[in-house]
Each structure stands twice: as structure tokens, then as C-alpha cells.
Amino acid sequence: MKHRSTEFMLKIFSAAALICGLLAAPAMTAAQKPYHIVDHWKIGGDGGWDYLLADPPAHRLYITHGPRVEVLDTATGKPVGALTGFKGTHGIAVNPDGKVGYISDGGANAVVVFDRATLATLATITVGTNPDGITFEPATKTVWAFNGRSKNVSVIDVATQKVVATIALPGKPEFPQVDGTGNVYDNIEDTSSIVHLDAKTLKLVGTWPAGCESPSGMAFDVAGHRLFPVCDGNKMGVVDSLTGKLIATPTIGAGPDAAGFDAKDQLAFASSGDDGILSVVDTKAAGYPTIEKLPTLKGGRTMAYDSGSDRIYVVVAEYGPKPAPTAEVPKPRAPVLPGSFQVIVIGR
To answer: Is the pLDDT of residue 179 over 60?
Structure first.
């Protein structure tokens, strides 16, 4: 009789524990759920690629792809159209007015202004040599094109579509970020530093160590005042955007070229091409732990985070055999196989 009572009580406790677990389950945050690959969007075509940009309100994804920019509908993954006729695209920026966008055409030393509804070219503006990263600065309504070879930044007034300033930089710039109040930041790859520029005075006001070597892509937690440059050596820097102080250097994948930030769940992302990894860093936890390393595909070095759908887009392609080194090309790259260009869609 005593044994049966004990067995009955154990059943009661087990049932209570199950009910408590079910009640607690909805409290699990999205940040605790791992990311995984949910789709592959085939694009095709030839050539290399650089940056991509998600436009959540318009449900569009812009992808620089050699001499063109692909435009996809993020709700379906289907092509909306393409902008063509470029010599070598690098970055995209959009005006919050919803009407106009800007493309850095590095091969033409120009910024191209386009109509986002029709994808028609509206203007071509000559800037410095090989414009790469590009961003829209809302406080001054200017576009900033960071020129990789001339090591400066061209500032364009969007009202007149003219360059109003050219600011010298201490090295080769990479990916820029803005805080919306007139502060502009950019990685300087060859000096492993970050520059702070004032959009209102059009001056360089600070240069800080990035905390890691050869920073390329960079994400930004605007509200938390934290910059996240991604670097060689499997490192991401965490830098205070107010003081330039280095906060942490979490470990990420090898060969990153882009980064993103989820403000809602306080996660930083880095896409790395050498090992084909998407690293996810928990920026609200002590020590900035890397909580996930999701395999993508080798070569998947650039990405965009879509805050509207909590999705990450990584662009990749398949490669053929790497050619033998020659005196003219001592470090040859493996060729991209025609028709293999695609977007890996990652979600939770």
C-alpha cells in the first residue's frame, strides 16, 4: 500500500513538472533558437560579387554581381529585375524616401543614382578611384562613397547630385556605418583601424584601433553604441562608438567580409568565405560568446541581415579547379562556375 502511494505521488509530480514545462516553453526567446538554412535562391549568371543590401520595408534584396545589380523579392525569392551596364559594382545604399538608390561602380569611378520603382538610371556622379563601401547619411541627406584606391571618401549632396566634399583617409576604406545623427564610421583595412567622421563638419574627427587585423565588413548596434568590425585571424572586434575603446574580440570564422546586427535579440553576425561559416555572437552575454557556427558554403563571405523577417542572406557560387600559379598571377583564384551563383537564405 505504501509503495502504491509513492508511485501515485511520483506520477503527480511528473505531471506537474510537465505542465510547468509547457507553461514555460513560450518564454523561450528567439535568440535561443538556432539559425538554419531555409532556402536556396538560384540566380545564375557569371562573374564575381561584392556587397548586398536588404530593404525590409520594400521586401527587396539588392546584390552587386559584377557588371550588374540583381534585385530580388524577399517574399518569394523571385527576381524583380536588374540594373545593368556597370563596369564593376561594389555597394548599394538607399534613401529612406523609398524612391532613390545609389550604387558604387568601382570600375567606372562613379556613383550611379537609380529609381527604385523602375530601376532606371537617374544620374552618374564621378567620385574618387574605385568607390567601394557606400552609405546614406540621413542627418545631412548626403551619400558617402568610400574610395578604395584613392583612400578618401566622396560626399554627395542628394539634392544637387554633386560631390560637396572629398575627405582624405589614413588608408584603404572598407564598409561604412552611420548612427543617423551625423556620425559616420568606416573600417580602414590596411591600418587595422576605424575612422570616425562628422557629417555636419565634413571632417575626420577620430581614428581608433579596430582590435583585430585587416577589418573589412562592419555591423553597428546604434542604440548600444557598439561597432562590430570583422577581421582576419578569426576575430570580430567590439568597439565603443563614442570613445573608440575596444570591448571584446569574439572568435568567428575565417575570411569574413561582411557583418550584420539584430537589434531585437542583440546578435551580431559574420559571414566568412574561407571556411563557409556564418558565426552568431551573443552581444548581451558576458564575454560575447559565439553561440553558433552555421555551415554555409565555401566562398560565402558577404551577407545582409533583414530585420523585417529576421533572415540572413549569404551569396555563394560553385568554383572550378584553381589554376596553377604563374609569374604574372602568383596567387590565382578558382573560377566561378557559370550559372552557379545563388543566395543561401537563413532563418529560425
So the answer is: yes
Look up the domain containing 154 and give its range: 49-209
Domain final position from 180, 209, 238 = 209
Nearest to 121 by CA among 142, 101, 141: 101
Residue reference for cell 542627418: 139
Question: Which residues are CB-contacts of 203 (< 8 A; sequence separation ≥ 6)?
Answer: 167, 197
d(CA 69, CA 104): 11
pLDDT of 147-158, one tens digit each?
Answer: 999 999 999 999
pLDDT digits (tens, 9 = 90+) for 17-51: 444 444 433 433 544 689 999 999 999 988 889 99
The CATH number linked to 255 is 2.130.10.10
Contact criterion met (CB below 8 Å) for 70 and 82 = yes
Instruction: For 90, list phi and psi in degrees, rounded to 5.
Output: -130, -60
Torsion of CA 170, 176, 179, 181, to 10 degrees: 60
- Grid cell listed for 163: 560631390
Q: How far apart are CA 131 and CA 134, in angstroms?
A: 8
Task: Tell me which DSSP letter residue 4 carries.
Answer: H
pLDDT at residue 58, as a whole number: 96
Question: What pTM does this model have?
Answer: 0.89
Residue 16, domain member (yes or no): no
What is the pLDDT, as a whole number, of residue 86? 97
